[in-house]
## 1
Amino acid sequence: MKNPRLSIFFLLAFASGCQRQPPNSLTIFAAASLVAPVQKMAAQFDSLHPGRTTRLNFAASSFLARQIEEHAPADVFISASPQWTTYLARRGFVDSTAIVVIAQNLLVIIADRQLLQLPLQLRDLLQEKFWPIATGDPSHVPLGQYAKESLTRAGLWETISPHLLPALDADAAVATVERGEAPVGIAYQNEAVDNPHVQLAFVLADSLQPEIQYTASVIKHSRNAKKAQAFVQFLSSPQGQFTLQSFHFLPPAHE
């Protein structure tokens, strides 16, 4: 499992050092659930562009958007929700006509490896033995907002919401279950499949799945706009899409 505290380190570093971006670096702000694929794609991109160094900052999309709003030196923003890309577009930080959907995802229920009896459907989370339920903070973290949408569709939000254990981002929610601090969690599919530290209990039914879209955009104050645009294009390229899907993301829906 990735280190969820990595995001906090970078948020502090970027907040205190906004003017220290190396002139030939490309800085990517990406949702916490994208750590592994973006690390790999950044390395691939750097190998195609010698002399460039790609720096990565991972956190909840909401935190990243607000850092960009405060003029953190970002070149590319990859969000786990179009909401936060739109947030920046409305404030003039992103070109609303150049936002690219690069992937989709699904919600799943994960469980502690030591849990012997797993929930089999969303209504099982009404049982006290599955409390607290880890997920992203529904007030601003995309994972938590998606979880709220699914629980609301199922008619369970009012009953289950008091028993949620909100986390700072998607990685932190999964880590909460990994550490045994919550018996179950609502997470993204890519964070659960092939994760040896949790059990995948079930994938939410299609009727309860929110539309989870990951968007990429170039920040208008980027000092490396051409390279930033090239990176966004790389995410949608066959190589970028192969990498994303190898980490269990879904391809963007065809228009």
## 2
Amino acid sequence: MRTSSAARQPPARPQPLVEVLTILDCPNRDGAISLAERVCDHLDSAAEVRVIDIADQPAAEQARFLGSPTIRVDGRDIEPGAERHEEYVHACRLYQVGHSLRGLPDEDWLRQALRTAEARP
């Protein structure tokens, strides 16, 4: 008995989820969304990009929100070492990138996070 080609294919891996968490008046909101979409396109990733607006301080605490914008891949903040932070705020976020502070995370952090997520079984 022959099996169909669909039956012989390995099970599909779930696509990564890229979350862009922001506050509505964040000056870097649109830039963070564009960054996420651009990196996903550049890597030909099947990742879903989801924008989540954090409404207030209680929502920031519940979401473990480190400030706006925050980008997570499969629930993990893309900034190296971010898991050590425990202050959750409904405010803007700055990133130490090289020797300067920036309003957006480093593009390479997102690339690495996506590659890692896509390599997981």
## 3
Amino acid sequence: MSVQRRETKTGTRWDVRLRDPSGRVYNRTFATKREAQAYERSERTARDRGDWVDPHAGRQTVGEWVDYWWTLHAPNLAPKTRAQYESTLNRWVLPALGTRRLSSLTPLDLQELVNDWARTAKPSTVHLRFAVLRTALLAAVTGEVLGRSPCRGIRLPKREQRRRSLPDIADLERLAAAMGTNYSAMVWLGALLGMRWGEVAGLRVGAVDLLRRQLIVGETVGEAKGVLHIGAPKTAAGRRLLPLPAVVCDVLAEHMRAEGLTGANGDEWVFRSPRGGPLRYSMWHLRVWIPAREAIGSPALGFHDLRRFYASQLVEAGVDVKVSQELMGHEDIRLTRGLYAQAGDDLKQRANDAIAAQLLGDRQREAETGEISGRG
């Protein structure tokens, strides 16, 4: 029998002796028989359901768990994401929780930590830190080290919805001109194909087929902690075949002609650094992008805004959200819907601005005409 009575100097105790799924024996002692029997039933039920958790596993500290989890998780992350996670863990999570027993964490503990972060950090930063912590603790649940994640019910600070105005075609034309002949075509790959900067920088000549009017997004260039990383897109959805509008074909053909690139240069980068190698974002951003956006009077414009412009055009054209998901390389359609919603709001704003400008323009003309007529 797994529940046994035992007499001690301080009174009667009830021992529960059980075996875990691997056959290892573990014990627990209670003051009453009822408590012992209830524990035994709950343990057996949990094992039958497949959600049993080793009672000893949660005794390790958060720091010990994170060290183990990180060795398994880190290799699956993109270099930039890995650097971001590592910095967050080392600077904000482990100093606060590293010595705590994993099983001792409660939602109240984490709410207190989030509130503490929110006193000095932006809401978006707090969301990022919590996302990293939640990922690590959910992995502990999946690994049957914790029965439940303490990350439930946490109230995070509200993120401000900053409205960023979209560029229009005139802005894009001026931006392309300001970026110079070496890089002007990058504007149109972002704005008319929705490509990310890393995808544009990772484009090789062999991935562009001007005769069939298509290109393959199959490689990206990124930078983390000053180190250049070249590899496949983060997700399978990121690798995609994009049909090329005629105007983009013309722009690419002109660019490759000016760069002396032909089909024989299949492994060459379409957009190269001054030394001929792949672009490094930090240098390109400082040397090319910032001067160009300041030249057109848009100091807050980011390359990702070109992708938002593309999304707005998909919305305006009534393109199905599933097709848009494939064109934009989103693995999760919720990302597409979110970008669609944002783009839709931008289009509504633009529509109302246009109507107001038209009405006010008509009134201004009427006023000017009236003044002229009155003088006559």
